Amino acid sequence: MFSNVLDTRPLERGMLAAFAELTDGPVADLGCGPGHLTAHLRSLGLDVFGLDLSPAMIALAREAHPDLRFEQGSMTALDLENGSLGGILAFYSTIHMAPAEVPAVLAEFSRVLAPGGHLLLGFYAGDGPEPQEFDHKVTPAYRWSPSRLMDLLRQAGFAEVGRLVREPVEGERFLQAQLLVRKD
């Protein structure tokens, strides 16, 4: 599941490579799912571990990547010390959160990132000023205007480094977006 998705996503590979080059220190892949991006970040030389709420996803990740560390946990209350991470990857892992919950999660990301640490946030892009709910395979999800989400990231103490918005490819319904930010 998803293990070869990056093979056909050169823009995503580019953003992940930039994130890896900019990031110093341990990295958490939050909402890691089956661990394919955790493994990719390791291949780029990062000291990375994965965390997911789903025990089933953690089991899949451990089976597929037994050499990597995966833990079950929630990104809403990370069991990590303040400033202990150099980077966070949150790729489509916040899309199911109600918009009212997102500022607290971004504050939690800020809490565990060291000053100068980087966050790469992947999400479905919307075209309106407010988050737009849509039907997702698992549970309802939200599309965000990159500018609106960047406003929330600034409020949580992040500065924009770069952004990517790309058109959907076959099998995708919406614009895809990534925000690469640095904790001030």
Number of beta strands: 9
What percent strand? 25-35%
Q: What is the mean pLDDT?
A: 95
Principal-axis shape: globular
Computed Rg: 15 Å
Residue share in helix = 25-40%
Helical segment count: 5
The largest pleated sheet is described as: 7 strands, mixed
The rounded distance between the terminal residues' Cα atoms is 36 Å
Order of neighbouring strands in the sheet with most strands:
3-2-1-4-5-9-8
| SSE order, one letter for each helix or strand | HEHEHEEHEEEHEE
Q: Regions with pLDDT < 50 over 5+ consecutive residues?
A: none
How would you sum up this structure, described in words?
The structure is a single chain. By secondary structure, this protein is α/β, with parallel strands linked by helices. 28% of the residues lie in helices and 31% in strands. The protein has five helices and nine strands, in the order H-E-H-E-H-E-E-H-E-E-E-H-E-E. A seven-stranded mixed β-sheet has the order 3-2-1-4-5-9-8, with helices on both faces. Strands 6-7 form a two-stranded antiparallel sheet. Strand 1, helix 2 and strand 2 form a beta-alpha-beta unit. The radius of gyration is 15 Å and the shape is globular. The N and C termini lie far apart (36 Å). The model has no long low-confidence stretch (mean pLDDT 95).
Characterize this entry briefly.
With 184 residues, the chain is α/β, with parallel strands linked by helices.
